[in-house]
C-alpha cells in the first residue's frame, strides 16, 4: 500500500528516543507515521501535509500539550488529538478532555493499547463522515423533503407537494399507517411561506373530547376544576404557522363542529371565556381511513370535510413503491450504523428479494422495525432476513439446521438428556459463543459452564 493511502499519524514528542519508538511501532502496524519534536512546528506541518490523527506529549518546552491541543482544535476540529504523558493525573485527564482531546494515555504504555485508541477514533471518524454523507444524500433529488425514493409513485408525490407547499390552503393527507403522513405534513410546512412560524402536531386519537378542546382552544383560569391558571391553546400558539391534526377521523361530531367554526371564522374562544381571539392558521389533517367514504356513510361531517379538503395528497403505501425498498434499506442501515456504532454492508441477495416482495401492512414504519431488529441481533456485517415470522435471524438462517426433536415411544429422553441436547443445539447456532448462548437460554455463563461440566462434556469443544 502506498504511503498516501495509509492512515497518517503525527507524533509530537520532544524526547527523540520515545519519538523514534512510536514511529517504528506505528509503521509496523501499517500506519504512515511522522514525528515532530517541537510543538511550534506542528501547525505549519499540518497546513502543508495534513494529518489523520495527532498524538502529542503533554509536557514539552516552548508549548505544552494543552496549548497545542487548543490550537489544533480551533483550526482543525475534525482531527482527533490523543494526549500522552508520564505525569498522568485525574486533573490532567479532565482538563485534556474538556479542551477536546479524543483520548488520554499514560506513559509507559504498550503500543497495542495505543492502537486500540487509534482504531476507536478512526471508527468514530468513519461514522462521522458517513453521517455527513447521509445528510448530503437527503438533499438529493431522490431524497427530497427528507423522504427517500425514486419510484414513479414517490415522484408523483413530490410533484404534488411542490404545488401545494406554497399555497396557504388547508390540506388533507390520506395514507395507510406508517407511510409517512407526518413527514409530508412537516415538509409542506417547512417549504411554505409559514416555515418561520410554528408547526404544532396534535394526535387526535390520543385525546378525549374534553381534553382535546382545552388543548386546542385553551382555557381561562377557573373555567373548570383544576384550571388554576389561564392556558393558551394550540390553535392560538400555532397562529401564523401550521396546525397538523393527525388521525382526525377519530374526533367526535361535536368536536368537528367546533373546529369547523374556528376554521371558518379564523378565530377561537378559550373555554370559560366569551372573548374571540383572531388566528391565522393553516390546517393540515391526516387520516389512515378513507374520509370521503366516512362522509358518504355519515361517519364524518361533510361540511367539515369540505372545509379541510381544499386539496388532498395521497401518500402511496410501500406496496405501490417496492422499487424504493433497497434505497430505504440503505438509508436506514446508515442511520443504524451511526446509532449503534456498528458497520453493516447490507442484506444478502436472498434477504433483499424477500424484503422487496414481503407484505408490509405497517409500511415504512414496519420495514424500519424489521431492519433494526436484524441489525441488533446480527453479529455479522452482512444481515439476513428470513421473513416476518423469523424472530432470530441467525438461528433461522439455515432452515436445515432448525432445532427439531422427534420422540419415539421406545426412545424417550430424560429431562437431563433433553436439556443437554437443547444446550448443545443453542451452542451450535451461536458458533460456540457461550455468553450469547447463556443469554438465549436465560441463564448466566457460570450456570452454563456448570451444566456442561455435569454432563461430563469438555466445554471447549463447542
Automatic annotation (TrEMBL):
PROSITE patterns in the record: RESPONSE_REGULATORY, SIGMA54_INTERACT_1, SIGMA54_INTERACT_2, SIGMA54_INTERACT_4
Domain Response regulatory: 8-122
Matching SUPFAM superfamilies: CheY-like, Homeodomain-like, P-loop containing nucleoside triphosphate hydrolases
Keyword terms of this UniProt record: ATP-binding, Nucleotide-binding, Phosphoprotein, Transcription, Transcription regulation
SMART domains: AAA (SM00382), REC (SM00448)
Nucleotide-binding found in the keyword field: yes
Domain annotation Sigma-54 factor interaction: ranges: 147-376
The keyword Nucleotide-binding belongs to this UniProt entry's keyword annotation: yes
Pfam families to which the protein is assigned, alphabetical: AAA_lid_14, HTH_8, Response_reg, Sigma54_activat
Descriptive protein name: Nitrogen regulation protein NR(I)
Molecular function via GO: ATP binding; sequence-specific DNA binding
Single GO BP term: phosphorelay signal transduction system
Amino acid at each position: 500500500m502506498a504511503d498516501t493511502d495509509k492512515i497518517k499519524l503525527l507524533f509530537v514528542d520532544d524526547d527523540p528516543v520515545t519519538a523514534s519508538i512510536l514511529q517504528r511501532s506505528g509503521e509496523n502496524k501499517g500506519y504512515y507515521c511522522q514525528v515532530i519534536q517541537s510543538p511550534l512546528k506542528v501547525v505549519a506541518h499540518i497546513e502543508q501535509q495534513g494529518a489523520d490523527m495527532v498524538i502529542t506529549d503533554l509536557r514539552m518546552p516552548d508549548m505544552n500539550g494543552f496549548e497545542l491541543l487548543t490550537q489544533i482544535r480551533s483550526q482543525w476540529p475534525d482531527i482527533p488529538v490523543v494526549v500522552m504523558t508520564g505525569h498522568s493525573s485525574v486533573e490532567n485527564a479532565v482538563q485534556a478532555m474538556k479542551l477536546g482531546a479524543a483520548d488520554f494515555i499514560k506513559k509507559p504504555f504498550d503500543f497495542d493499547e495505543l492502537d486500540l485508541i487509534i482504531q476507536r477514533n478512526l471508527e468514530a471518524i468513519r461514522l462521522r463522515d458517513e453521517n455527513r454523507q447521509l445528510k448530503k444524500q437527503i438533499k438529493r433529488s431522490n431524497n427530497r423533503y427528507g423522504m427517500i425514493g425514486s419510484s414513479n409513485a414517490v415522484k408523483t408525490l413530490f410533484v404534488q407537494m411542490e404545488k401545494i407547499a406554497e399555497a396557504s390552503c388547508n390540506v388533507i393527507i390520506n395514507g395507510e399507517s406508517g407511510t409517512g403522513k407526518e413527514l409530508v405534513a412537516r415538509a409542506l410546512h417547512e417549504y411554505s411561506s409559514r416555515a418561520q412560524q410554528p408547526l404544532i402536531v396534535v394526535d387526535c386519537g390520543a385525546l378525549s373530547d374534553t381534553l382535546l378542546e382545552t388543548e386546542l382552544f385553551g382555557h381561562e383560569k377557573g373555567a373548570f376544576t383544576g384550571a388554576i391558571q389561564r392556558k393558551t391553546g394550540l390553535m392560538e400558539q400555532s397562529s401564523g404557522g401550521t396546525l397538523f391534526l393527525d388521525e382526525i377521523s377519530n374526533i367526535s361530531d361535536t368536536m368537528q363542529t367546533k373546529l369547523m367554526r374556528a376554521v371558518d371564522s379564523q378565530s377561537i374562544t378559550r373555554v370559560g371565556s366569551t372573548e374571540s381571539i383572531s388566528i391565522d392558521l393553516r390546517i393540515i389533517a391526516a387520516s389512515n381511513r378513507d374520509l370521503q367514504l366516512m362522509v358518504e356513510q355519515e361517519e364524518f361531517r361533510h361540511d367539515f370535510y369540505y372545509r379541510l379538503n381544499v386539496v388532498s395528497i395521497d401518500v402511496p403505501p410501500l406496496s405501490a413503491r417496492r422499487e424504493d425498498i433497497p434505497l430505504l434499506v440503505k438509508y436506514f442501515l446508515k442511520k443504524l450504523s451511526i446509532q449503534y456504532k456498528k458497520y453493516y454492508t447490507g442484506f444478502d441477495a436472498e434477504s433483499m428479494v424477500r424484503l422487496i416482495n414481503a407484505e408490509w401492512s405497517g409500511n415504512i414504519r414496519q420495514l424500519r422495525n424489521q431492519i433494526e431488529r436484524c441489525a441488533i441481533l446480527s453479529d455479522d456485517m452482512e444481515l439476513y432476513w428470513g421473513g416476518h415470522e423469523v424472530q432470530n435471524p441467525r438461528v433461522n438462517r439455515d432452515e436445515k439446521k432448525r432445532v427439531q426433536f422427534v420422540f419415539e415411544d421406545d426412545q424417550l429422553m430424560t429431562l437431563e438428556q433433553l436439556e443437554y441436547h437443547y444446550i448443545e443445539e443453542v451452542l451450535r447456532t451461536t458458533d460456540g459463543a457461550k455468553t450469547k448462548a447463556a443469554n438465549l437460554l436465560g441463564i448466566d455463563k457460570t450456570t452454563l459452564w456448570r451444566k456442561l461440566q455435569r454432563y461430563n462434556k469438555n466445554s471447549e469443544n463447542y
